[in-house]
């Protein structure tokens, strides 16, 4: 199942002022990385549970949702130590993908996505460091939102890699996605009027070329919906990799390494592969900083794949970490120049449909490499990103696309997704 444990948490004051509560009547599930008072936060690993005590307070993000009238119905299964985008957990099992039972649900917020996709909760909380909300949203055919880095409190959430950690959420419906965002982001105004300021949609055509032609056509539905609402003069196509390369000087170091290793993939623009390498390096370094002491003293039993990743991270040194941090701020500036206040970047969330369960490690690693090339754009820039489901393909597998807006434009992006989806639905 999707849940580690079920319980009910709701606000005692719900009845008193129920008419003003924006999330009244909605249920939600929470990834087992958030502290809930009176429960041990499991972090996807039984040895973690054995060596930690119960939480003495509840994470502020969870509290704010309960105070807004929503009822928490339980904690969900996650990948061990949040170190995977697959959704397979060697100890607690793999939550069943409600759209494709023979495929992975995506991780590390696997149970949270499955709970929403399988109609067990109206929305759910996850975390997204390298892609852990966007990927399972895509695989399970639901909406997922990664907010701008640092905009939602991650207090009471076990850190994975703080330079990237964000509190994200899932919903089946863009209205609920936006309502939850308003509570978590503490937005005061209605952002619907901001959608009128929308300036342009920039389609990353080199990223789209990672998808097969059939999926590229399905993605076109979103572009045509935007053109229907705003006119086609607002659409531009660019090669994102070519745009980034000269504007993010710190990439040179990582691009040079890729070319030296002979690991250039024809499909992935070199600058996006370099971006991904930089993100993964900084992630490993920060993971080590937070968790090496526990890992070395407890020697936890870790599932395959995770064990290798954790071992690799423990070998990471601080070499090139400064370059990674420079790269983050350079990318933020370059993409802010590209999008401005009300521009939106459209690109695939992942390079294709969800991989099969127990896929061969070599094939899976190739898929992951492409996926991180795409996921690192918002990850390294700190921008906000929404995954929008676009139905099923000819093989009955979920298809979707992502929209990215500049850091701090979360309210605008959530409203834009809601507005545009009214048109997408009719196509």
Automatic annotation (TrEMBL):
Cited InterPro entries: Amidase_CS, Amidase_dom, AS_sf
Gene3D superfamilies: Amidase signature (AS) domain (3.90.1300.10)
One GO molecular-function entry: hydrolase activity, acting on carbon-nitrogen (but not peptide) bonds, in linear amides
Residue ranges annotated for the Amidase domain, each copy included: 13-173, 320-414
The family this protein is said to belong to: Belongs to the amidase family.
PANTHER family the record matches: AMIDASE 1
Name of the protein this chain belongs to: Amidase domain-containing protein
Species, as recorded: Genlisea aurea
Lineage: Eukaryota, Viridiplantae, Streptophyta, Embryophyta, Tracheophyta
């Amino acid at each position: 199942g999707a849940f580690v444990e079920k319980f009910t948490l709701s606000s005692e004051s719900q009845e008193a002022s129920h008419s003003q509560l924006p999330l009244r009547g909605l249920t939600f599930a929470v990834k087992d990385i958030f502290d809930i008072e009176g429960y041990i936060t499991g972090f996807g690993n039984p040895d973690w549970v054995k060596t930690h005590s119960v939480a003495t307070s509840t994470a502020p993000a969870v509290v704010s949702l309960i105070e807004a009238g929503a009822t928490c119905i339980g904690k969900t299964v996650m990948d061990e130590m949040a170190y995977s985008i697959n959704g397979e957990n060697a100890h607690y099992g793999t939550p069943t993908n409600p759209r494709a039972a023979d495929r992975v649900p995506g991780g590390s917020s696997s149970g949270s996505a499955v709970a929403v996709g399988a109609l067990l909760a109206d929305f759910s909380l996850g975390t997204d460091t390298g892609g852990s909300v966007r990927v399972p949203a895509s695989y399970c055919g639901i909406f997922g939102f990664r907010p701008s880095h640092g905009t939602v409190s991650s207090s009471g959430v076990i850190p994975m890699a703080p330079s990237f950690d964000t509190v994200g959420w899932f919903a089946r419906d863009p209205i609920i996605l936006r309502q939850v965002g308003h509570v978590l982001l503490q937005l005061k105004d209605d952002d619907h009027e901001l959608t009128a300021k929308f300036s342009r949609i920039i389609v990353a055509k080199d990223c789209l070329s990672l998808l097969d032609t059939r999926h590229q056509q399905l993605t076109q539905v979103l572009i045509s919906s935007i053109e229907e609402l705003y006119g086609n003069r607002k659409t531009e196509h660019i090669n994102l990799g070519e745009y980034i390369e000269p504007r993010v000087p710190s990439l040179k170091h990582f691009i040079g390494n890729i070319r030296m290793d002979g690991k250039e993939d024809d499909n992935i623009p070199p600058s996006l592969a370099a971006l991904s390498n930089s993100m993964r390096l900084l992630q490993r370094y920060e993971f080590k900083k937070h968790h090496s002491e526990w890992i070395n003293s407890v020697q936890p039993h870790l599932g395959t794949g995770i064990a290798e990743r954790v071992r690799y991270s423990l070998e990471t040194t601080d070499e090139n970490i400064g370059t990674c941090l420079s790269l983050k701020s350079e990318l933020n500036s370059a993409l802010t120049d590209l999008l401005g206040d009300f521009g939106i970047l459209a690109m695939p969330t992942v390079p294709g449909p969800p991989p099969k369960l127990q896929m061969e490690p070599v094939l899976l690693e190739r898929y992951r490499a492409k996926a991180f090339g795409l996921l690192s754009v918002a990850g390294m820039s700190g921008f906000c990103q929404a995954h929008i489901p676009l139905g099923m393909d000819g093989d009955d597998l979920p298809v979707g696309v992502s929209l990215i807006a500049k850091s701090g434009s979360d309210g605008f992006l959530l409203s834009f997704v809601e507005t545009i989806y009214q048109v997408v639905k009719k196509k």
